Protein 1
Amino acid sequence: MELKIKGNKLLTGEIKISGAKNSALALIPIALLSDGVVTIDNVPEVNDIFVLKEILEYLGAKVSFDNNVMVIDNKKLVNKEIPENLSKKMRASYYFMPVLLSKFKKVEMFFPGGCAIGARPIDQTLKALRALGGVVDEKDNHYCIQTEGLVGGHVYLDMPSVGATVNTIIAAVKAKGLTILENAAKEPEIVNIATFLNAMGAKIKGAGTSEIRIQGVEKLKGCYTEVIPDRIEAGTYVIAGALVGENLKISNIIPEHIEALLLKMNEMGIKYNMDDDSIVISKPDYKLKPVNIKTLGYPGFATDLQQPVTPLLTMCTGISKLEETIYENRFNNVPFLNQMGSNIEIDGRTIKVKGPTKFKGQVVEATDLRAGASLLLAALSADGETTIKNVEHILRGYDKLVEKLSAVGADIELK
Ligand code: EPZ
């Protein structure tokens, strides 16, 4: 599929932010730990969610999903190997490793890891599962992990990995005894997950800090939970507002979750009006100052907003520098942005952006989710028409993308 965008149209009106993809992708597998019925509200309708629904149903769960509400009843759950054609579709499938290990003492699945932005190893997850009593056999990306029964342990992560933090919490909630997790990721999604598990009866303390303590419990009951707003979707549309907004209102956001982006926009000199759950922003008619950005784990500047913010850096007068410290290959958008008229040099894990430059419509290609988002933002501000190929990548992370942008005046068509 491809998107056709006629750029340089000012966007005005309101965009409502959906539930966080990266929360929902963990909450849904975690729901299988419950011995009751679980309701998850504000689930975004992006493709990966439907893949997860397929995996849950394959495992025997009864799942309904209407109006962004997913109800999961896993009374008839059975332990089966998750087929490769499903597990390799998305990285989030590895959350099933600790879920099935905790539930059934054994899990077998194929897990490829890796994608366009980097190798994305899962060594920290495997280290954590071993520390809690898992025995891991891996051959050609096929994993068989077993345990006599998970026991609490001490896990120190080499880096604050989001996935390894989630997987350790999952493995620990019904393990015997206390688990102490250090150097944990502090992303808001971790808090969303811990709140959900505690609502089921888990005993998790410290989520959102770098030390998390989990006291194992016997049972986890059914409950209701809600996915937090998607801070990366929010940041992406805030950047759209700074590029082509005319009093564009982005609502249903949690401002502190995009604070690093807002602070960098303040440094550029961009003005906007903020209240407790929305922001109104317009394209500046004044010069923007160049800035330096370094991606870090939360609350640092989010790596997922690195590619989306790059088109904004091209509007700044002078040289901006951006260093990507999380992934080894997350500049696939740059050649296409330069094809559209920007002046960006790649130097290892840093890019140098010389501005201001003006984007012109071109035929380009999305190589990964956030690279695609970056090209979409450039296209919205470009003179002329842009075609973005392989747009499936973008649709994975942005709920109702075409509807939301069309509703505020974008000339955008999905073909
Ligand atoms: C989550 O991925 C997100 N995905 C990513 O969002 C996000 O970029 C990332 O967190 C960082 O914020 C989901 O939540 C589904 P990590 P995850 O474990 O859990 C190293 C998007 O665009 N590492 O923090 O895979 C490795 O270099 C996606 O929505 C190890 O070396 O992130 C990895 O690249 C992209 N060993 C880096 O840390 C490990 O065992 C970040 O990994 C784990 C990680």
Note: The chain has 14 helices and 23 strands.
Protein 2
Amino acid sequence: MNLILLGPPGVGKGTQAKLLIDRFGIPQISTGDMLRAAVKGLTPMGMKAKEFMDAGALVPDSVVIGIVQERLGQDDCARGFILDGFPRTVAQADALSEVLSGLSRSIDAVVSLSVDKDEVLKRLTGRRACHGCGAVYHLEFAPPKASGRCDACGGELYQRDDDKEATILRRLEVYDEQTAPLISYYEAAGLLRAVPGAGSVEGIHEAIVAALKAS
Ligand code: AP5
């Protein structure tokens, strides 16, 4: 199954992708995670991307399309994949369709998650991630057992640089301007499955699976 998870910052794309990996046995391709790894590794691409990310802006299409194209060609994507945070512009969506057509493949469904802005702000200002293994927590909704420490590996938890309120608001504006048009783009292609992003993590997961089965 070749899936796209679409939705604003903090809607729960990464959280839901983790459950879908276990359910369908296909990998998550998160452009945000790949870019953060490049930033952490101090690669030239990472250094360039960091300026855009810290400002809440999108990294240029050419950079992101290149990393996704390379990733989709890897063996573990042969049975399917979950794109999380890509595409984010119409140009990226067009490029994805071309890359997949070159591989004789196509997107099966686009799950569009939505929650209101106040909920996004709560989710993102309270989000913490592990420096060691990348596990994601929330101070109120999914707290770690020991404050500031990862349950899985004991690593130190940190707040993402772009999870400060001013940057979150900018990311939401960028979403509305550049990414939200993809909802009608994929609706017109008959691929959109709209799923409410509010409620329990497990309940949303089951709603996604039901929407996929119905398609
Ligand atoms: P990226 O990392 O993709 O960020 P994003 O799309 O803004 O999404 P987030 O990771 O912030 O949120 P999420 O929806 O995954 O939510 P999560 O599951 O963590 O991108 C970062 C930056 O990289 C971009 O701004 C851009 O600069 C660049 N970039 C990336 N891709 C790009 C592209 N294609 N083109 C150009 N630039 C690109 O959940 C959030 C919190 O809520 C967590 O704490 C979680 O525990 C909690 N939570 C989740 N579900 C629930 C629930 N049901 N109830 C309560 N709490 C919940």
Note: The pocket of BIS(adenosine)-5'-pentaphosphate is lined by residues 9-15, 31-32, 35, 52-53, 56-59, 64, 85-86, 88, 92, 123-124, 127, 136, 138, 141-142, 162, 171, 201, 204 (CB under 6 Å).
